[in-house]
Amino acid sequence: MERIATIERKTGETTISLTINIDGTGQCTVNNPIGFFNHMLRSFCKHGLFDLSGTIQGDLEVDQHHLIEDTGITLGMCFAKALGNCAGIFRSGYSIYPMDESLCRAAVDFGGRPFLVCNPDLTGIPLVSISAGGQEASFQTDCFEDFWQGFVSTAKCNLHLDILRGRSDHHKMEGLFKATARAIRDAVTIDPRRNGAIPSTKGIIV
Prior knowledge:
Blueprint: E1 4-10, E2 14-21, E3 28-31, H1 35-48, E4 51-58, H2 65-83, E5 92-99, E6 102-109, E7 115-119, E8 127-130, E9 136-139, H3 143-155, E10 158-165, H4 169-188
Parallel strand pairs: 3-4, 7-10
Antiparallel strand pairs: 1-2, 2-4, 5-6, 6-10, 8-9
Helix pairs in contact: 1-4, 2-3
């Protein structure tokens, strides 16, 4: 059975359309106006072996917060739709991922109860880059937690993110995206010993 889902979400602030294949090959073809954020989504897909495509647009003249948080919300909705009742999956997963001087840890449980614990140890200083058109661009590092808060709220999972050590904000965020991807990959993998049963003593994921 294919675990593919498409979600289109439109508000007065953002227009987002995403399609995910949980059992993909790591391809990311999202039309994303924020360079560093695009880099994070590509890393997430590559290390989770998820295929993600679509378009994200938002009121960047106001702030990056709306677009980044709403992308997290939409991505979480994609996972929830693709997983359905979560029958047969391992349900939880974790990863400790080294990113140069940074050591990053992620643990996730698709148990139906949204909760985020996020300790990324970031400076809060935006990352500055130069766009393809030669214009200065930036990524608001304080939106990192907003993205994952949006994700857990609709994916109905709990997620714990911690930096065990590190210096570079770039490495900390990228390492956490990669660690989360690996943790989610393990959690959503089909457990052959479960024989399609719901991974809960309740008999249902709520």
